[in-house]
What does this fold into?
Amino acid sequence: MDTASSKIQRIEVDGLYWADVFCPFCGQQVISIEDGEFEFAACPHTLFHCVEEGFGFRSSLFDKNMGIEGIDDYDIQVASEHGYDYFTDQCTVPNSLKFVSQDVPPSMDVVCIGFALLD
It folds into this structure.
């Protein structure tokens, strides 16, 4: 398999929207949910965190890979019919994966968080 051109591995997870999330590579907690409050703390492996409204975090590695270096979140062209979930599916950082989860009705919001194993 040619990892240089492979797209990010996508893993769908039920209930991720309101769950604590830990990096699969170093074990650091990157998302903490306590009493309904959301806290985010990226580890070195974190590529991005986004919901359908936009990015909460983008690493420089992700930006470079996606060709969006120096572009403000509001200026990134994401097709509305596909959204940020589809946009982040196009990431080709080697040894990368993303967790995707859809919230329960009525919100149906989507959350994505990507990680990469670094050299």
Summary: The chain has one domain: 9-116. The mean pLDDT is 88. The longest helix spans residues 60-66.
